[in-house]
């Protein structure tokens, strides 16, 4: 196979020759030697400040022999701190003892007031008063119950049974008896021989109608009060 040759070989050679030390093979380059008169002096490299300017306006006023009216001399009074502390202790209000609660045999104690064992809640203004949300919820439940009862009463009124008066009962009985007579006449006119299916079915239908009419007439005559449901 052919040997790989990089395309950056010329650039690498140029950089190597450019950065090559000049005195590596020929010795150090000739540098100017400093003069013996230019030796390093003390504090020569420290930064030098600009010369200070004298203020002409800052002139001191002459001292006055008489003090000004606004002058208040400082009166130093010696204080007896021992007597002051003693009087403060004598006149001071004694500290109230703090209540602690001990909950173990080793004497572990903690403050009683912030522990929650002291019933502070009984001193609240709203203690024992029913909360507003409970009252509101009870009113809503009561209103819903009233609406439900009114709806039930209205539904019962719609489904209430109607009482038949004597006139209506008499007219219904007469109509049932008239219908029974017509059905009975039709039954008596039937042929004695029922040899076909149609004749058998017709006879059974008329007999059923007669039985139903007899049952209705007997029920109306037997009961004094008759009620009819509103369907």
TrEMBL record:
UniProt keyword Cytoplasm present: yes
Pfam families noted in UniProt: Enkurin
Subcellular location: Cell projection, Cilium; Cytoplasm, Cytoskeleton
Extent of Basic and acidic residues compositional bias: 46-59
InterPro entries cross-referenced by the UniProt entry: Enkurin_dom, Enkurin_domain-protein
Domain Enkurin as annotated: residue spans: 136-228
Keyword Cytoplasm belongs to the record: yes
Record key words, sorted: Cell projection, Cytoplasm, Cytoskeleton
Positions of the UniProt region annotated as Disordered: 22-59
Entry's Gene Ontology molecular function annotations: calmodulin binding
Record protein name field: ENKUR protein
């Amino acid at each position: 196979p052919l040997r790989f040759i990089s395309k950056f070989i010329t650039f690498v050679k140029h950089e190597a020759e450019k950065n090559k030390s000049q005195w590596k093979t020929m010795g150090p380059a000739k540098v100017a030697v400093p003069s013996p008169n230019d030796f390093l002096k003390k504090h020569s490299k420290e930064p030098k400040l600009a010369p200070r300017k004298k203020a002409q306006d800052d002139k001191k006023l002459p001292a006055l022999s008489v003090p000004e009216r606004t002058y208040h001399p400082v009166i130093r009074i010696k204080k007896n701190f021992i007597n002051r502390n003693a009087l403060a202790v004598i006149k001071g209000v004694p500290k109230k003892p703090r209540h602690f609660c001990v909950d173990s045999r080793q004497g572990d104690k903690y403050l009683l007031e912030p522990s929650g064992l002291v019933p502070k809640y009984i001193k609240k203004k709203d203690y024992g008063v029913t909360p507003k949300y409970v009252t509101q919820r009870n009113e809503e439940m009561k209103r819903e119950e009233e609406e439900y009862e009114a709806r039930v009463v209205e539904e019962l009124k719609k489904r209430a049974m109607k009482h038949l008066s004597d006139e209506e009962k008499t007219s219904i009985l007469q109509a049932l008896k008239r219908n029974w007579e017509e059905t009975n006449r039709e039954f008596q006119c039937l042929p004695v021989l029922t040899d076909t299916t149609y004749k058998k079915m017709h006879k059974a239908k008329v007999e059923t109608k007669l039985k139903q009419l007899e049952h209705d007439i007997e029920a109306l005559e037997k009961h004094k009060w008759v009620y009819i449901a509103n369907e």
